[in-house]
Amino acid sequence: RGRWKLKMGVQEPKSRGEGGMDPAQEFKDLGITDDEEKEFYEKEEGIGAGKKKSWLHSVHKGVMKRSGSIGNFFGGTKTSNGLAEEDSAIVQKVMSNRSPVASENGGVRIQDPVQATMVRSVLSLMLRQAGRQLLKGQNMMNVSFPIECCQPKSILEIAAMQGGYFNKFLPSAAASKDPAERLRLVVSCFVASMTLTSGNFLKPLNPVLGETLQVDYEDGAKAYLEQTCHHPPVSSFLLEGPGALYRYYGYTTFAIGFGMNKMLLKNRGLRVLEFADGGKIDIGFPDDRWGNVFWGEMHHETLGDWVFTDEQNKLRATISFAPPPKAKGGKSPPSDYFVGCLERFDPSEPEKEGTRMSGIEGSWVGFCEFDSKRTWHHSDGPIVAHGTPRDRAVLPSDSTHRGDRNALLRKDYKTAQSEKTRLENQQRAERKLREAG
Fold it and tell me: Which of 23, 30, 117, 427 has a Cα at 20 to 30 A from 271?
């Protein structure tokens, strides 16, 4: 542990001119390239040499062309000057409807400079010790991070935060008899919820196998989460809305890797929102990226496509983050900007274009609109509070009983690291017993 000691228990990297190396050059010397960011996402999505790309890759370009929430997205017959003016108007709109926590370049910027120092110190040391083999060859979820780089919440607790906006959208969605309007409300709800799980750049604690979490929300909703697999790490969840209006359930897993000065996260799993009348909407997964993890302003971005599917009613909504400017060489809005469309499609041929019903436009740190009608703004009211149930005892396996988590809350790093190491060793021993039959 001695190597981690200094300010707040974290080793401070040497600065340039003090015998240390420029962190940018140190990272570049490993040979990590921007192309490897693409390789990571494709590897985690099961796409590689000789493998067929998913239907989502095929439909992406068509969705972009059909988004059309501000005129004809790819320009139609408009002149270059006209397209450049539209690019400027988009940038102005996005920048004037922006959360105070937003990064100028896109997403949410780190709010606490101490966090940035801690994260960079730990990652820099890990980089020097393990080098390229670690950064390119492994899923970082399988790497044990020192406790100083962690926040006093488990991944299950972070997941439960997503329900903070459900009370503002989902009761109305449950009451709606119009499937398209229901889908609009659901998309708006999940876009609005994105900032709730962003902003803290310390790593959440990995749940141990069998770890659980029970949560009550102020509006009467209840959530139950459990870590149901160790390798790969899989979290299962069920959130029941008040009055049994809706159920949100499924499982999630993810892989973490590195690109050039970036940390990459690929989300996978199943997420379903089911209403009391039997309607179901599949909630897809976009990709996440933490930019400038070694130098520059550290920030969290969401990229790629996000698909919401109501197969029963043959409806699909797709939003694409960070679209290119309309004019060649035009000014791009921040990466949190998105465009998309709600369309009627044939579930038997998902790769084919559907019939456009609504254009979608927004920024996940600012606003969401369907055909220029605003459905959410970052200044909209408080989120619903949630916490540990008060009317009943939680299981001994609940995240709130973890010794390392509670020691971290007290800033007792020595005890927290000892407890974290104990849990990890216990997991390894139990895994060997399971494998031995």
Answer: 427
Residue whose C-alpha is closest to residue 374's, from 360, 386, 384, 357: 360
Q: Give dist(CA 189, CA 171) in Å, integer.
A: 11
Enter the tokens of residue 227.
């870590």
Nearest C-alpha neighbor of 347 from the set 282, 391, 404: 282
- φ/ψ of residue 188, rounded to 5: -60, -40
Q: What angle is formed at CA 82 by the lines to CA 77 and CA 87, rounded to 5 degrees?
A: 115
Res 232: pLDDT: 84
Task: Using CA atoms of 263, 202, 413, 130 in order, give the dihedral in degrees to the nearest 10.
Answer: 0
Which contiguous run of DSSP H or E holds residue 186?
A: helix 179-193
DSSP letters along 305-344, please? EEEEEETTTTEEEEEEESPPPSSTTPPPPPTTEEEEEEEE
Q: Is the dihedral of CA 213, 217, 222, 228 positive or negative?
A: negative
Kindly state the helix (H) or strand (E) to which residue 419 belongs, with its residue range.
helix 413-435
Beta bridge partners of 281: 273
29 within 8 A of 294, measured Cβ to Cβ: no
Is the Cβ–Cβ distance between 362 and 336 less than 8 Å? Answer: no
For residue 402, which of 385, 422, 387 has the smallest C-alpha distance?
Answer: 422
State residue 434's pLDDT score.
87
Which residues, 6+ apart, have CB-to-CB distance to 205 below 8 Å?
150, 151, 152, 153, 154, 155, 402, 404, 405, 420
Please check whether residue 180 is in contact with residue 356, taking contact to mean a CB–CB distance below 8 angstroms.
Answer: no
Phi, psi of 33 (to 5 degrees): -120, 165
DSSP line for 94-138: HHTS--TTB-SSSSEE-S-HHHHHHHHHHHHHHHHHHHHHHHHHS
The closest of 155, 130, 308 to 232, measured between CA atoms, is 155
Nearest to 106, CA basis, from 290, 269, 327: 290
Indicate the burial class of 281 (C-beta count within 10 angstroms; 0-12, 13-18, 19 or more): buried
Give yes or no for a contact between 271 and 186, defined as CB atoms under 8 angstroms apart: no
- pLDDT per residue over 207-223, tens digit each? 999 999 999 999 999 99
Q: What does the block give as tokens for 219?
A: 């509006």
Question: φ, ψ for residue 190 (rounded to 5)?
Answer: -75, -30
Q: What is the end-to-end Cα distance of the chain in Å, rounded?
A: 35
pLDDT tens column, 120-141: 887 777 766 655 545 554 555 5
